[in-house]
Amino acid sequence: DQQVKQNSPSLSVQEGRISILNCDYTNSMFDYFLWYKKYPAEGPTFLISISSIKDKNEDGRFTVFLNKSAKHLSLHIVPSQPGDSAVYFCAATGAGDDKIIFGKGTRLHILP
Amino acid sequence: NAGVTQTPKFQVLKTGQSMTLQCAQDMNHEYMSWYRQDPGMGLRLIHYSVGAGITDQGEVPNGYNVSRSTTEDFPLRLLSAAPSQTSVYFCASLDGGGGYTFGSGTRLTVV
User: Fold this and answer.
1) Neighbours of B47 (CB within 10 A)
2) Spatial separation of the C-alpha atoms in residues A100 and B110, rounded to whole Å
3) CB–CB contact A43 B92 (8 Å)
4) Which of A63, B54, B75, B81 has most Cβ atoms within 10 angstroms of its Cβ?
5) Which residues of chain B are within 8 Å of residue A36 when distances are taken between CB atoms?
6) Chain B: nearest CA to A107, how far in angstroms?
């Protein structure tokens, strides 16, 4: 039973446009959400996070939006750059234990 | 400051062999975890530890053992390797801001 779902395995976006990556979760106890970026043959790197007390968090070109009623969060990258091509993982925690649960990831391709 | 160090980077095992994947962090983080990454499956939590002497199971713990005798080290043991354990393994430690620092991974093949 997947608690964190990334339903799009891949996404292609033109360079300079906005990339929107989506994530849904099922456990209403989750109260902290994170996005990670992963290049091939490297470990994931932390990108941005958001607490459930907020609905938006921004860091440079990256913004995460949280819709608690819909149990949905999204990562916006604008403008998209070639170096953004990677796999992006959504993760969540806070469901009464200390586990951090990841989604399956979305592979983002930035097209020239 | 090396962050999270995993060894080895690559390993090939025969079915039934045992081995230990090493993980060490120098950031004095209490929380450490092991994940495996498989195609189409994302990152799945194997075991985690909230501090020295404390470990707990994640989503896919079967076939793996862990121990946490020190804050720095969190080894993952495969007692009898199976082909289903062919995967890329990541160790991670959690900082106070809620973000994980991951190691660079161990690519394990069981034949």
Assistant:
1) 23
2) 27
3) yes
4) B81
5) 100, 102
6) 11
Closest partner residue to A104 (CB to CB) among B41, B45, B98 is: B41
By CB neighbour count within 10 A (0-12 exposed, 13-18 middle, 19+ buried), where does B52 fall? middle
Whether the pLDDT of residue B1 is over 60: the answer is: no
pLDDT tens-place string over residues B54-75: 999 999 999 999 999 999 999 9
Q: Which residues of B touch A103 (CB under 8 A)?
A: 42
Q: Name the residue in chain B with its Cα closest to that of A32.
A: B98
Q: Do B40 and A104 touch (CB under 8 A)?
A: yes
Share of chain B above pLDDT 90, in %: 86
- Whether B97 contacts B29, CB under 8 Å: no
User: Would you give per-residue pLDDT tens digits along chain A (112 residues)?
Assistant: 789 999 999 999 999 999 999 999 999 999 999 999 999 889 999 999 999 999 999 999 999 999 999 999 999 999 999 999 999 999 998 866 678 899 999 999 999 9
Of chain B, the percentage scoring pLDDT greater than 70 comes to: 95
Q: Enumerate the residues of chain A whose CB falls inside 8 A of the CB of residue B99.
A: 34, 46, 49
* Peptide bond between residue A44 and the one before it cis (omega within 30 degrees of 0): no
Give the chain B residue whose CA is nearest to the CA of A44.
B102
